[in-house]
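User: quick one, sequence for these C-alpha cells?
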C-alpha cells in the first residue's frame, strides 16, 4: 500500500515542478513587487555617458537613459527580456538578478504627465534655461545646465540636469547660444521645449547629470 501511494505521488510532484519552472520569468529575471516581467529591449545606443534604451512593455514603448556601466550593459542588451520595476525617479531594469537603475525619463512619461496641468487654461509657463553642450551625434544633442519647469513632468533636480534634444536647426541654434526660454505646454507634442527664435526645440528626455 505504501509503495502504491509513493508511485502515485511521484508523478504529481514532477508535474508541480514543471509548472513552477514554466512560470519562472524569462532570462531568470525576478518579478518582485512593482515589477512588470517580460519587457523586450528594442534598441540600445551609447550616447556619451549614457545608454539610450527603448523597451517594449506590453502595448507601451518606453524610452529611458541609464548609465554606461557593466551591469547596465548586461541587463539591457538588444532583444533581451527584462523585468521593469516602476520605482524611484525613472524605474529599474532587472535580468538574471542583475539590476540597472534608470537616470533619465522620456516618453511616455513626459508627454502624458498630468502634474501641474489642471486649471491652467491657455497660460504657457515660461522660464530661463542656461546650459552647455555635453554631447552631440547625428541624432541628438545633450545639454547640461539649469532647466526650470521640469517638475511639471515629475522630474526633480532642474537646477542641474541634462536635457536631450534632437540634432535639428532650432536645437543647434539653442545649443550655440547656451541660454533660451523654456516653455511648458499642457497639450500637444511640445510638453517641454526651448524657444530658439521663432522655432521650438522639443525636449525629448531629461536625465540626472553623469556621475563624476
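Assistant:
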Amino acid at each position: 500500500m505504501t509503495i502504491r501511494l509513493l508511485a502515485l505521488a511521484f508523478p504529481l510532484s514532477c508535474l508541480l515542478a514543471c509548472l513552477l519552472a514554466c512560470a519562472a520569468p524569462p532570462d531568470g529575471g525576478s518579478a518582485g513587487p512593482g515589477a512588470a516581467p517580460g519587457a523586450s529591449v528594442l534598441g540600445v545606443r551609447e550616447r556619451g555617458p549614457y545608454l539610450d534604451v527603448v523597451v517594449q512593455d506590453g502595448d507601451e514603448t518606453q524610452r529611458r537613459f541609464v548609465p554606461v556601466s557593466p551591469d547596465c550593459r548586461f541587463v539591457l542588451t538588444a532583444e533581451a527580456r527584462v523585468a521593469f520595476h516602476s520605482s524611484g525617479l525613472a524605474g529599474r531594469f532587472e535580468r538574471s538578478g542583475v539590476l540597472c537603475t534608470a537616470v533619465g525619463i522620456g516618453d511616455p512619461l513626459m508627454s502624458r504627465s498630468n502634474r501641474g496641468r489642471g486649471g491652467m487654461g491657455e497660460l504657457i509657463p515660461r522660464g530661463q534655461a542656461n546650459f552647455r553642450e555635453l554631447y552631440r551625434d547625428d541624432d541628438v544633442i545633450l545639454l547640461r545646465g539649469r532647466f526650470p519647469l521640469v517638475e511639471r513632468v515629475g522630474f526633480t533636480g532642474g537646477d542641474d540636469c541634462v536635457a536631450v534634444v534632437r540634432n535639428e536647426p532650432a536645437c543647434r541654434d539653442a545649443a550655440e547660444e547656451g541660454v533660451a526660454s523654456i516653455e511648458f505646454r499642457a497639450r500637444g507634442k511640445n510638453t517641454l521645449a526651448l524657444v530658439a527664435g521663432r522655432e521650438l526645440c522639443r525636449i525629448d528626455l531629461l536625465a540626472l547629470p553623469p556621475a563624476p
